[in-house]
Amino acid sequence: MANDKLNKMKEVADYIESGIEEFGRDENMRLEVTTIWKYKKTKVPEFAMVFLYFSDYASKHFKPVTCKLLFQIISMAQMQNFLTIDIQTFCEKLQMSRASVQRGLKELIENNIIIIVANRNDRRRNDYFINPLGVWRGNGHQRNQFIDKLKKEGNQLEIDLR
User: Fold this and answer.
1) Which of 32, 40, 91, 122 is 20 to 30 Å apart from 56, CA to CA?
2) Domain extent listing, the chain
3) Domain spanning 49-153: which CATH class is it, in words?
4) What residues pair up with 78 in beta bridges, in sequence order?
């Protein structure tokens, strides 16, 4: 099946090349034509990169509540590790008490895994940023640019994974 499709694509490419070259001859032009064709890319499902050293550390040192909260944050994060949410939504999604969510957030903040910034538009919500040294939602080039930007701004990135 794939071989038939490849042969058909080559056949169409040759037909286009010969047609353009013939047109050039009719107009007293010498044309050399090369056809470049590509397969249609398949859509990649959404994903986040979780770095192995980070996941190993988290599984051994964080409380189960904190791990559950962290993976919920990762799953909900938008591109470039950004998430806007209120604590009540965390409670509902994870079926956890407000105190448990707050303890988990405190542990993530103390370990430099997330940064919390008050949302400018809604006082009930916070903006959460996941440290790109442990997790990244986006491509590798964007991650490197983001890390460079944070370093220039003097933001703390270090994660103590001892």
Assistant:
1) 91
2) 1-42, 49-153
3) mainly alpha
4) 82
Quick one: CA torsion of 25, 27, 30, 35, rounded to 10 degrees? Answer: -80
Q: Give this prediction's pTM.
A: 0.66
Indicate the pLDDT class of residue 152, thresholds 50, 70 and 90: confident
Other CB atoms within a 10 A radius of the CB of residue 134 amount to 24
Of 41, 111, 127, 117, nearest to 78 (Cα)?
127
Contact by Cβ (8 Å): 143, 150: no
Q: Provide the residue type at 17 as one letter.
A: E
Q: Which tops the pLDDT comparison, 101 or 13?
A: 101
Least confident residue range of 29-38, 55-64, 152-161: 152-161
Q: Which of 39, 34, 4, 5 is nearest to 17 (CA)?
A: 34
